[in-house]
């Protein structure tokens, strides 16, 4: 019994607290390019000070937040109708439709992002189609723009939006919509006053599940984004691998975690509240 | 069509796939009455109610409410309100917001809404619970919120789908009187669906007995009870002894309380000899099953007006007697 209780704590200690302690220790040290590992331990906050004072980092923070926020919104606008349609579909079809949402997970995330590189390249399938259809004269290159990053994030994280929304909408009692109609609400008003507020827990969960990983996303901006896009995950990578500045990279990682504590706490609270509800 | 009709159904029919839910129903419901649709499960009574509310579209036939054809009119534009069997209270709104929902849809000013919500809550004796959430209420309180929410718009017609089914027995009986009182005070027309014949008999001014999507009989409770139109109605409402007449081409419905038990041959219009097979003691009355000489069984009930043990025991030889007009002739 005690072992069972101890297990999650041991897991948390070994795979979160210990590595985080290491990262924090490195962040408080200073770079030592000639030694291996390239760190001299210390107790200095200069790396954090640099992060706050250098416009590059601030811009990368804001860029990450902005791109994560707009991608989350796009995923919500796309995911809500999908989840709604699945929840309203014939019960026999629902497992198949849900499977279709989850199906992309059967292929490695990295391979799917590479596939988008091929699709979005200047002579990729998307541009070929646009040229052939004659809708756009010169589509330009989508790959390497912020559009591509948004597309990648929405594509990769859409299931995380759809599943909690589906869970919330599927629980919704159809009788409530009949009651709303009976009391004089047209379908739009019934949606706004009944469906939407009752699916709010699903909206909050879905948005946070997309937003939180999207802020720190590295692979998508690195592969689909251009050199001009600054996202904090990419900055972290560059500091670590290109500049070999481990302490600064560690400081970026610590700040990323601190920044996401707010949304994560919000998510936890919302989950706890939905568990309390009968 | 009589001038007093508020609902007129003509040739109404509805099928779900291969199942016929409602089959060519013609019915008039009068203004200001408490009308009950009574029948077993699957008889089509709920489908009929949902067609009046607009949640189901009839395959054939017409619905007139207050003279207006409801064909193609969606539920939110019909002058009716419904109290749902599950109550369907909005869980994210407090009681006052639930009751005021329909008034807000009509765009009434906030003070007017608050006044009418308060009035409706007082009518159902929930005056001080306006700020509670539905989850914080008892079953009986939820039922009254559902009622207030449906009443507050003063609909021409209030539809009640099994309004008492979710309540326990004591509360159900008290609420019956409450519903009748409200209906009379407000002067509204109530149409109630129920599977409980006692409920329909005690509350309705008229009732329709339904079976297999058809209406078997419409009439005031005493008429349906004393002069059932068919063997189905006689059997469904209360207990009936059904005796063959004219060599099996017609039947006599004889209610158990219309038969009396005697120790010796009585001088009633009809008398039969039998033996008591068993006795069901129900407190206020006892139900005897008596085997006749020809092998058939008759049910006889007697009111237990005295506290001492019944005069007859199981196995006693008895005489049954009834008057010439005690039974009702059935032709189908």
Brief overview:
The complex is a heterodimer of chains A (278) and B (332). Chain A is mainly alpha-helical. Helices cover 75% and strands 1% of the residues of chain A.
Folded structure, characterized:
The complex is a heterodimer of chains A (278) and B (332). Chain A is an all-alpha fold. Chain A has one domain (55-276): MetI-like (MetI-like fold), CATH 1.10.3720. Chain A has helices spanning 2-27, 46-53, 55-88, 94-102, 109-120, 125-133, 146-171, 174-182, 187-198, 200-215, 219-224, 232-242, 246-276, and strands at 30-31, 39-40. Chain A has a two-stranded antiparallel sheet with strand order 1-2. In chain A, β1 (30-31) and β2 form a beta hairpin. In chain A, α1 packs antiparallel against α13 (246-276) and α10 (200-215) runs antiparallel to α13 (246-276). The mean pLDDT of chain A is 87. By secondary structure, chain B is of the alpha+beta class. Chain B has helices at 45-53, 95-105, 110-123, 139-151, 169-186, 197-203, 221-226, 231-236; strands spanning 5-16, 19-30, 34-38, 60-65, 68-69, 80-83, 157-161, 189-194, 206-211, 214-219, 241-245, 250-254, 260-262, 270-281, 285-292, 297-303, 317-322, 328-330. Chain B is 25% helix and 34% strand. The model of chain B has no long low-confidence stretch (mean pLDDT 88). In chain B, α3 crosses α4 (139-151). Chain B has eight helices and 18 strands. Chain A binds chain B through residues 173, 175-176, 178-186, 189-190, 193-194, 197-198, 278, and chain B through 53-55, 74-77, 80-82, 84, 86, 88-92, 101-102, 105-106, 135, 149-150, 153.
Anisotropy-based shape of chain A = globular
Q: What is the CATH domain class of chain A?
A: Mainly Alpha
Task: Say which CATH homologous superfamily of chain A is assigned.
Answer: MetI-like
Strand content of chain B: 25-35%
Strand order of the largest sheet of chain B: 6-7-8-3-9-10
Number of structural domains of chain A: 1
Mean of pLDDT of chain B = 88
Number of strands of chain B: 18
Radius of gyration of chain B: 24 Å
Q: Rg of chain A to the nearest angstrom?
A: 23 Å
């Amino acid at each position: 019994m005690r072992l069972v209780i101890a297990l999650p704590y041991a897991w948390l200690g070994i795979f979160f607290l210990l590595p985080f302690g290491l990262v924090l220790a490195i962040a408080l040290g200073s770079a030592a390019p000639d030694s291996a590992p390239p760190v001299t331990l210390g107790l200095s906050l200069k790396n954090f000070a640099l992060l706050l004072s250098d416009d590059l980092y601030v811009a990368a923070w804001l860029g990450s937040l902005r791109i994560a926020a707009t991608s989350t919104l796009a995923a919500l606008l796309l995911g809500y109708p999908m989840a709604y349609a699945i929840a309203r579909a014939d019960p026999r079809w629902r497992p198949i439709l849900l499977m279709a949402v989850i199906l992309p997970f059967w292929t490695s995330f990295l391979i799917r992002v590479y596939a988008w590189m091929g699709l979005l390249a200047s002579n990729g399938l998307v541009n070929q189609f646009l040229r052939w259809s004659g809708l756009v004269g010169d589509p330009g290159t989508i790959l390497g723009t912020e559009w591509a990053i948004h597309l990648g994030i929405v594509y990769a994280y859409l299931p995380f939006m759809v599943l909690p929304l589906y869970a919330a909408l599927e629980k919704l009692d159809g009788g409530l919509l009949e009651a709303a109609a009976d009391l004089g609400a047209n379908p739009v008003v019934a949606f706004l006053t009944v469906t939407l507020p009752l699916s709010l827990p699903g909206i909050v969960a879905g948005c946070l599940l997309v937003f939180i990983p999207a802020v720190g996303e590295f692979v998508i901006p690195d592969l689909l984004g251009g050199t001009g896009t600054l996202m904090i995950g990419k900055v972290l990578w560059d500091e670590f691998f290109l500049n070999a500045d481990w302490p600064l990279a560690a400081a970026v990682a610590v700040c990323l975690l601190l920044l996401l504590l707010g949304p994560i706490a919000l998510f936890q609270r919302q989950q706890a509240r939905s568990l309390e509800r009968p | 069509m009589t001038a007093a009709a508020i609902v007129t159904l003509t040739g109404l029919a509805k099928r779900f796939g291969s199942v016929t839910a409602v089959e060519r129903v013609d019915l008039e419901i009068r203004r200001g009455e408490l009308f009950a649709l009574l029948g077993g499960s699957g008889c089509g009574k709920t489908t009929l109610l949902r067609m009046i509310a607009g949640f189901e579209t009839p395959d054939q036939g017409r619905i007139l409410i207050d003279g207006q054809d409801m064909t193609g009119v969606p539920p939110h534009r019909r002058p009716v309100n419904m109290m749902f069997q599950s109550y369907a209270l909005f869980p994210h709104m407090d009681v006052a917001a639930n009751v005021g929902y329909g008034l807000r849809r009509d765009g009434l000013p906030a003070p007017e809404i608050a006044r009418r919500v308060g009035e409706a809550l007082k009518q159902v004796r929930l005056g001080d619970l306006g700020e509670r959430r539905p989850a914080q209420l008892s079953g009986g309180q939820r039922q009254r919120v559902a009622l207030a929410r449906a009443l507050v718009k003063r609909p021409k017609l209030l539809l009640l789908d099994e309004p008492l089914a979710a309540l326990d027995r004591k509360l159900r009986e008290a609420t019956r009187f409450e519903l009748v009182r409200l209906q009379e005070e407000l002067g509204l027309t109530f149409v109630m669906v129920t599977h409980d014949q006692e409920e329909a008999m005690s509350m309705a001014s008229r009732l329709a007995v339904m079976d297999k999507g058809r209406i078997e009989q419409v009439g005031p409770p005493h008429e349906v009870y004393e002069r059932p139109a068919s063997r189905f109605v006689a059997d469904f409402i209360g207990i009936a002894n059904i005796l063959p007449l004219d060599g099996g081409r017609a039947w006599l419905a004889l209610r158990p309380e219309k038969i009396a038990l005697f120790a010796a041959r009585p001088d009633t219009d009809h008398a039969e000899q039998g033996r008591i097979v068993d006795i069901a003691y129900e407190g206020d009355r006892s139900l005897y099953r008596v085997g006749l000489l020809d092998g058939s069984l008759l049910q006889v009930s007697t009111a237990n007006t005295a506290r001492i043990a019944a005069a007859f025991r199981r196995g006693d030889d008895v005489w049954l007697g009834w008057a010439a007009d005690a039974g009702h002739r059935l032709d189908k």
